Each structure stands twice: as C-alpha cells, then as structure tokens.
Amino acid sequence: MKKKDFRKKYYRLKLHICSFILFSFLCLPALAQFDILFKPKENDEKYVSVQLQVFPPYRPFLSEYAEELSDKFLVRIILNDLSMLHEQIMIKITLEAMDIVWKSYTNVFSFEGEYVLELHGADFVPFFASINSPQNISKLGMLHFSPNTDPYRIPDGLYRIALEISGFGNKLLPTKVYTPYYPFFLDDPPKLQAPKHETVVVQDMEQGVHFEWKPQHVYSENIDPNLEITYQFRLYASDFEKDISKSIPVWTHTTANTNYTLTVDDYQLQPDTKYVWQIKVITNKPDKTYFNNDGYSKIAEFEYRQK
After folding, report:
1. Cα 123 vs. chain centroid, distance in angstroms?
2. Cα 83 to Cα 168: distance, rounded to the nearest angstrom
3. Peptide bond into 57 cis (omega under 30)
C-alpha cells in the first residue's frame, strides 16, 4: 500500500509539472503583448518630461494661481526630442477630489523653437476660467453640488491636480501627470470661549466684562506665513437684526490679543440688558479672503446684570 501511494504521489507531481510547463508556454505570448501595451509610455518619455509643482498655501481661489505674477502653480514641459520643436502640444488640467472631477477645456501650445515650455501665472487663465462650468464637472459620488457663483472658487477639500498632455501629430499618446492630494481650504474664524452663548454675566458695581476667543488657524498648515492678523471685537445691542451682517455694532475694539476686557471707559453696559458679541479677523491683505464667513465668528448672546 505504501509503495502504491508513493507511485500515486509521484505521478501527480509529474502531472503538475507538465501542466505548469504547458500553461507557461501558452501564456508567454499574452505576457509579451501585455508588455508591449506599456511601451508607448516609454516612447512618451523620449518626447517630453513633465514637471508639475504647486506651492502652499493651497487656497480654493483658482484666480490666485492665474494672476500675472503668480508663482503658486508651475508646469514645465521639457522637450527631449528636438525634432519636435515646432510641433503643437495639447494640454488639459483637471482637479480631482473624492467625489468631483473638475475639467478645463483643452488648450493648444507650441514650443516655438524652445526646448522648454513653462506655464505659470496668467498662462492658466484659459484653463481655470472654464473649470467651474457645469458641463465640466463630473460627479463621481452622491455629493450634491451646484457651481459656485465665483467662477474661480472651488469647495474646500482635498484635491490633486492632473495634467493631461497629447500631441506631436498623435505621436504622443494622452498622458497624465498627477500631484499628491493637497488641502485646498479656507481657515475657520475664531471660536468664542467666554462668555458663552445665552449666559448671564453678573458683576459688582464696577463693570469689567472679560471676553475670550480661540483662533482656529494657529495650527493650520495652510496659512500664509506673511499674513498679519488682528481681531476686531464687535458688540451689538439686543435689538440687532437677525442677519448680523446688516447690523451696526454699538462698540468695536481692535486688538492683537485673543482676549479683551470691556470697561465702563470703553462702553457702559446697561443692567438687565442682553447683548451679542462677535469677533472678526482682520488681515494685512484685505483684498484676499483667508477665512470662512469673511472672517466673522459665530455670535454669542449674554445678559448683563449687576448685584
């Protein structure tokens, strides 16, 4: 029995070896074809080399990347085959998030006798001006989104930028180059710490209400290092309009600190009266938006009482 079992195992092993050899022989042509499919990428590298760079802070206003002197976004296409100096190349830019792909129109460029084609600043105007058009937005998930009123504004989120190039009389097959995912977002305004919303502030005869707020951008990796920030304390009377942006504060105070004490020398609070306070972020670059809600925090209502 043991001898027969050994023979069975021997013939099975022999059968497996023969099957493997036959399988390898049949599959070799398919593997060769699979390798050929990747050869155009090698050929593409003979024509061009592509460099794609995005510099922080990564802000969701594409107009900043298309400003005349902007160096926040740089594309460099290096021509490796000098026989193609006068050929045209087609370029398309896409912004890819988890649920949405934003596509630009295809734009045609020429090397014009130079072996390096460099795009930056205003070169991106024809790309980004069309990227927020409804027909250029592909929804990949169940995300409900309507295009922003600002044609250069994209929703906050993680995006990667893809550059698709083709051309040279169809010699260069469509090729994509990707950046890593970057956080394109605005920072949140400060969070009000004290007094909290709908609280009662009780003090002795001498007024000295202490206000505190916590900046949300301090640990952000997306803040402009050259940005100078101050805070405007805003106090509203109890009869403020529901739309706080249309209300006029009864008192304001600007400070670089994250706290402020309101004394009678600044503004005298009336006992048994409700007030609303808010903080607005002010920067040294008022022509640009760095914070959500234009830098305005949420509001907090408190009632002032005296013993």
Report:
1. 20
2. 10
3. yes
Segment (H or E) for 254:
strand 251-255
SS3 category, 14? helix
Judge residue 112's burial from the number of C-beta atoms within 10 Å of its C-beta, 0-12 exposed, 13-18 middle, 19 or more buried.
Answer: exposed
Can you read off the two tokens belonging to residue 137? 């937005």
Pairing of strands 199-203, 300-306: parallel
Helical H runs in the chain? Answer: 2-37, 39-47, 125-128
Mark 271-285 as b/e (b = at least 16 C-beta within 10 Å): eeebbbbbbbbebee
Whole-angstrom distance, CA of residue 46 vs CA of residue 172: 10
d(CA 209, CA 196): 12
Question: Do residues 276 and 300 make contact, with C-beta atoms less than 8 angstroms apart?
Answer: yes
Residue in 214, 292, 302 with CA at minimum distance from that of residue 259: 214
Partners of residue 182 on adjacent β-strands: 159
Q: Please say if the pLDDT value at position 177 is more than 90.
A: no
* pLDDT per position as a tens digit, 248-257: 999 999 999 9
Q: Could you tell me the pLDDT band of residue 45, with boundaries at 50, 70 and 90? A: low
> Which pair of structure tokens corresponds to residue 21?
């050899």
Q: How many DSSP H helices and E strands does the chain contain? A: 3, 18
Instruction: Take residue 71 and report the two structure tokens written for it.
Output: 């160096």
- Give the per-residue pLDDT at 18: 47
Q: Which two tokens stand for residue 133?
A: 């058009």
List the beta bridge partners of residue 185.
none
Q: How far apart are CA 58 and CA 186, in angstroms?
A: 9
Helix (H, G, I), strand (E, B) or coil at 198: coil
Closest Cα to residue 171, out of 88, 51, 78?
Answer: 88
Q: Tokens representing 39? A: 């050869």
